[in-house]
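Quarterly update from the structural biology core.
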Amino acid sequence: MAAAAAAAAAAVGGPQPPQAEMPASGLALDKAATAAHLKAALSRPDNRAGAEELQALLERVLSAERPLAAAADGEEAAAAGGGGGPGAAEEEALEWCKCLLAGGGGYDEFCAAVRAYDPAALCGLVWTANFVAYRCRTCGISPCMSLCAECFHQGDHTGHDFNMFRSQAGGACDCGDSNVMRESGFCKRHQIKSSSNIPCVPKDLLMMSEFVLPRFIFCLIQYLREGYNEPAADVPSEKDLNKVLQLLEPQISFLEDLTKMGGAMRSVLTQVLTNQQSYKDLTSGLGENAYARKSHEKYLIALKSSGLTYPEDKLVYGIQEPSAGTSTLAVQGFAGATGTLGQLDSSDEEDQDGSQGLGKRKRVKLSSNTKDQSIMDVLKHKSFLEELLFWTIKYEFPQKMVTFLLNMLPDQEYKVAFTKTFVQHYAFIMKTLKKSHESDTMSNRIVHISVQLFSNEELARQVTEECQLLDIMVTVLLYMMESCLIKSELQDEENSLHVVVNCGEALLKNNTYWPLVSDFINILSHQSVAKRFLEDHGLLVTWMNFVSFFQGMNLNKRELNEHVEFESQTYYAAFAAELEACAQPMWGLLSHCKIRETQEYTRNVVRYCLEALQDWFDAINFVDEPAPNQVTFHLPLHRYYAMFLSKAVKCQELDLDSVLPDQEMLMKLMIHPLQIQASLAEIHSNMWVRNGLQIKGQAMTYVQSHFCNSMIDPDIYLLQVCASRLDPDYFISSVFERFKVVDLLTMASQHQNTVLDAEHERSMLEGALTFLVILLSLRLHLGMSDDEILRAEMVAQLCMNDRTHSSLLDLIPENPNPKSGIVPGSYSFESVLSAVADFKAPVFEPGGSMQQGMYTPKAEVWDHEFDPVMVILRTVYRRDVQSAMDRYTAFLKQSGKFPGNPWPPYKKRTPLHPSYKGLMRLLHCKTLHIVLFTLLYKILMDHQNLSEHVLCMVLYLIELGLENSAEEESDEEASVGGPERCHDSWFPGSNLVLNMRHFINYVRVRVPETAPEVKRDSPASTSSDSLGSLQNSGTAQVFSLVAERRKKFQEIINRSSSEANQVVRPKTSNKWSAPGSAPQLTTAILEIKESILSLLIKLHHKLSGKQNSYYPPWLDDIEILIQPEIPKYSHGDGITAVERILLKAALQSRMNKRIIEEICRKVTPPVPPKKITAAEKKTLDKEERRQKARERQQKLLAEFASRQKSFMETAMDVDSPESDIPMEITTAEPQVSEAVYDCVICGQSGPSSEDRPTGLVVLLQASSVLGQCRDNIEPKKLPITEEEQIYPWDTCAAVHDVRLSLLQRYFKDSSCLLAVSIGWEGGVYVQTCGHTLHIDCHKSYMESLRNDQVLQGFSVDKGEFTCPLCRQFANSVLPCYPGSNVENNLWQRPSNKSIQDLIKEVEELQGRPGAFPSETNLSKEMESVMKDIKNTTQKKYRDYSKTPGSPDNDFLFMYSVARTNLELELIHRGGNLCSGGASTAGKRSCLNQLFHVLALHMRLYSIDSEYNPWRKLTQLLEEMNSQLGNEEQQSEVPILYHDVTSLLLIQILMMPQPLRKDHFTCIVKVLFTLLYTQGLVALSVKCSEEDRSAWKHTGALKKNTCDAEKSYEVLLSFVIRELSKGKLYHEEGTQECATISPVAWSPESTEKYLQDFCLPFLRITSLLQHHLFGEDLPSCQEEEEFSVLSSCLGLLPTFYQTEHPFISASCLDWPVPAFDIISQWCFEINSFTERHAEQGKALLLQESRWKLPHLLQLPENYNTIFQYYHRKTCSVCTKVPKDPAVCLVCGTFVCLKGLCCKQQSYCECVLHSQNCGAGTGIFLLINASVIIIIRGHRFCLWGSVYLDAHGEEDRDLRRGKPLYICKERYKVLEQQWISHTFDHINKRWGPHYNGL
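Predicted structure, tokenized:
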């Protein structure tokens, strides 16, 4: 022990100055011993000495002076070699710390020991951005709740509403925290409250930690102080800060590791971080240590430069004062401050100092207030935690520090302390954020922290009470926005005192305020906090001040002359700011005002809101007229007011009138929202077109689903409230004046509009009427329940278009505050959806484009609930309204309810809430009636600028009026009227029902002198007395809406009409004085003599085009009046609407009924014929011309369509095989001498000739589909655990590879290359669309494509193009061989030569060397296409020879191309030929032409006649024994090892083309004998010894019968006898028995085996015959396929009877005696098996039955794939890839775009697509659930095969809902892969530049 003490003393180094270091060996002498000694010393009761010793040691080890000194002196020193020093010293220090903490033991054991005492029942796992986490709404209390994947899967969330998401800012797992989530959702680990049974932590375990950690943390703080240099004004110092942080990485990581040791260690850390005493002792900077002093100075400088003061003796708003006394004082100080806040804005306004530049700009000078100052500028740090947070902010929230601070949160004590500290630094955070260059990253990190603190209601309440959280937040937000205010130009540009935020500033443009607002919204979601806010008047005043900064921002001024040069995009910022900073907090507050008890809160908000509005009106100098040509879409104060009113009436039962202001204020309130509605109409009428597209963008955003319920809905509601309380005449006239259509509302046929161009009049009138209809029929805030609103919204969206579930969720405006509790996808959403819509499952369209699962409205919804008003309100694009009407029309046609073009249906409304009954007075005011009357008249008289839409809206308003008519109040009406009301002469009363029948005889109008009316009425206008007499009999005076409105306004304001008249007159007169150029207005009197009812009836006649078309229905059927709801009137056009209105009018009063009958009795005079003016004539001509042009176009289109149709029939026809395309060389027409081809470029037809050859448009592609066939029925699954692996050795490609290399080991190379086929992998597949073109035409076509600079999806340089006719993708042209049909016929005549003669002929023909034809164009093309074919696949798939470049390679490659194409066609037909017929593949096949090209090239290589297998097949060789001698020299491959199909292709391609049919049959017959023998040999090897001897015996008995050569038993026994001579059957060890099938071979099973063995060959041969000779394939049952094909091939003798069971051997036709040739073949085998029995046997067992290729089988649930692969590490670089992908063909895991796995500039996916699919790759992107296809140098996104419960894809997993496999889609994908049609079906291809 003494030794250890000595060592310690030595290590401490006594009082030596730190510079004189001990030798390193002394230091490292024994850290463990020192630590143990100190621990023992400290454990004694009197431990002062030990403590001092330890302090001294720590002082030495953890001195911050050394390591960073180099860095602090400037970068040169660091670069000069200080680099290595710091790192080493720091590691040393960390080592010491670890040893000291462990107190002499091992550090790892210490960690384990501490972990054992972890009582934490919380998970608290902290994650950073991009982490995959889960959110369960069913279990969450706070909407921010999130779980890590592990806790989520360990808990039970079946049936819950959860989703997976990628974290954007980072977060922490809430499992175990019952404040944030319900306990039922906790996972298994955190369910148990384990604190009870965890033993107490032994004192000595963590004793050292308590001593060491304060020094360690202080050291860290010193580093941070040291490393921070105030950045220069302009240079961002990010890199310096990052450097410091990199150096500190190990220290912070060490702290982070400590937090992960569990609860025990965390509580020690909490003690250290919050202990004020130790902080004071260490950091006061008063000691004698110069270094510490310097450090303290740096800290003070940093504080000062941050604009903060360090209060020494002033009383400070301090949160954690150590002594109780000061604490209370601080709080009192606060209370005082809060008191002053109330008078804040009033005092500020008076002493606004005009001389200050700033003072003028800032309306609210908060800076003068003492309390806010303290919030903004004072910081005092009293503990390590506080200073650590300070530096964390200073360094802009480094990720590591954030993670450390958050990892501590499971400690409750720490959580409270940290939250308070965070709040204390809130203002400082805002300042740093504003200055930051990386504000995005920083915002995310801030929210990462704050969301953990403020989501917890208990904690939020505590901080609100103790630290004035709300005051701080509101003040900080206000200060933040103050920095970017500008003067508002709304209304009165010069004198406006209002300031608004400038949306162009970075603060708004980049959403920098987002974290602060998000925190504010978060804390307002807690009821206790929100209530404090709503009760605090001072806060509300400040908040309204804040909101008013946004009132009127982003003002638009209409450009009248030039188009605006630069379209500003600031409107995004403005809309986002209003939504996030104003609307969302508003919704948060509203969610707490749901019950009667909260009335007081509403009154408060409304009161301060009105005050703020009044201030605003004063500031902008607003009286009664809005400034022209200006609009702002941002009126948050209006909207606050509106929404709180709505809530008050709907939920709190407040009396509306008690919260409404006086009439004058209401008039002001309505002006700006009304201005927005009028501007919307102007924007849609293209009146703002010179302001650019952005103004349209604003109009759309205003009504868009995320904004509408915070923007347009409150605006319309506010207008409804104003309308219900103001004088209706005043309101109506205001509307028409705002919409600038007053001048249009005259009876005269011509008028002048001083404020509107003629071309805009119509759409503005439509806009005004539509607005009135919406205003009067919308009930969103006037009495609908939440469920009704949801239903109406959903119906409106579904009527526009069918919608997917997710787009519906997105389009339906939910309450935007996420905490409101109305969660999308909630129960009500689903139940309403199922009530109104039917689900259409995802389907495929023939083009291959994939549909999502859609919801479509039910029939009864169209019938009863389709509401055009709601649709108009909610459409962003005008075309959606049309779309809804089209769908409605289609529904009516389909259901037979109405055949024509219907009008929008009239829908009954939900009853009004009693508070808003006044709204209906609008319908019963004379002004509106005059307007309706005038418009009906104008429509009837065909005045210009009126449309059906206008009529529709007029009728809608009339009908609304009838539906909502007041009781008969005619008596009192009459008494009121006085002479001064200028339009009393129009209508007697204000009730629409009465006014409808009132006849109006004469109307006086002001018209231009040129108008037709002037001439007509001249006599009347001269006699003044006659006028006077007419006056009372119903002539109206000029009715001016404007004058009317002004008068009303004055009346309301002055309440006395006498002054009003004087004020109004001059204004009206100047309004009416027309500009000088226009003709003067004169007064004319029109004779009208109509009432609204008579106009309606005449309209009916006009619409129906028949005289007297209207006949009152009740005259026939009196019932109608009793039960008026008649379905026949609910859908229809204008005629139906008029009938419906007349019926309703008749129902309302008997008088109306009588008058209608009367009018109908009078024969109506014909409508006066329309005088056509020149201008109108012009438009009519235009119309006519347009009509003609349209007809011409229709005609052309029809012609084109019919052409296209006929082309489709010839080229693409799938169903009618009988129509032959000329391209097929057919037997049908002997009289045609040559095949004729059409060139699709020049359009000429003709044969293909040597000089001008024609070619087929083909696509050559390398394919490895064949190689993926397996012999196993069990499907391969995608691996989803580590155990599952996919091994490729059972694939067809692998088996063929093994076979070839086996042969190459033992036999002569050239012979091996003739014995097999290649092309299972990387074979070339040729497909065509069937169109032909001249090769020279094609060349010029390619030239034109090359010069065409349009970006195509293909590369012309690689020879790619699209077929000029059908646009199918292609990359080569296959020349057609000039051949004549007649000659073909001759070749096909059967000849009667014997088989022996034919064999000789075949041999001779093969022997003739094929000289390449002379250099013609055709032969050149043949050569070039052969080159193309070779270049299509990679070299490794062509060269299999041991001697590179040997001609055998080419030979093998060429016949293998033929093999590949035949095999693939077989697969496309389903693997067999049972279906027969010319399938689609046959129809568009190019095999015939391909054969010509291949044969031409193959005949250049003659096989030495010695080695030609043909001889071995057809001749007995004498010198059998001679071969045994030369054992050393590699021999030829025995004929029984040859692949028969390959032999067939070699034989046929070696013959001169075209081939004769009997030669073909002869070759097939000969090869069949070989094939059959191979089958017998394989069978004999497969069966057991006993079976063999039995067969040998039975066969021998029959050997001498007549058809012994055609009996399989005889042949089998002979084979067995022959092969027994060799060693093939010997050497059968016991292990062999396993492969032998235990089943005894019956004759049936033997026959079946042989047939199955021969079938693949027969299928390929039949296909070949079909293509060469154009013979159709017969269809058959599967069991008879063999016999049908063999007879089709001519193997079966014609006289063969089919009664007794079919025997395959009967097809044999031996060219030489069977037994001799068989024994000759067997001899070769025996001589090989002498040496290599094993291999000999393996080569005989060929697998002939390959199953069809399939993609991997995928699991049902996508999550299974995702969880396994998204964390799986890459095998190359062992990192988790950013974009993992998996190959669906072979299951390989690859990195998409991963640079780690790049090889020679090829990224991994591209490389894999070449190796696995010869250039075609199908990859599932794990993180996106999408499939990507790589085809050569292009790629495309294919779509997803995983859909959610609503049949939708979830690309990029944005919604994170569970996904399930869609089997149909996967089948389509597999089909496209097998049929090689990716290029044709998928349209969006792009180059990948090897970067995937």
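The mean pLDDT is 78.
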